[in-house]
Model the fold of this input.
Amino acid sequence: MTDLAPSSSLDIRTEISAAYTAWDSAFNQADAKAVAAAYVPSAKVLPPTHEVISGPAAIENFFAGLFSRGFTDYNLTIIDTGGDDKVVYSTAHWSAKGKGADGAPQTAAGLATHIFERQADSSLKLRLHTFN
Done:
């Protein structure tokens, strides 16, 4: 069993910022496999469509669908963070560029909630991702 560093020795905001930077980068490279790798195997993604997307293949497929519709320039900006040595959370503003139904460029934006689980190597992986 691997001991995890206590949360008091970690800067959770910095860790989440780094996780967001990696996630944004994977999204902006339209790399659905890399995006899906940011989630634990039993993770849930809850988009504004009210779907429940669960598991690596479904998460990868969901994001591949966004990429096929031209979404890019994703950016997460932290609102709040917290947690402990096992579970951390963040709320964030998100924005992305895509195409509307008529093919015209549009900006999409909203709020997101992320629940991360700390892994044995101290990295963070998403357990829950919900956004509007």
Observations:
- The mean pLDDT is 90.
- The chain has three helices and six strands.
- The longest strand covers residues 105-118.
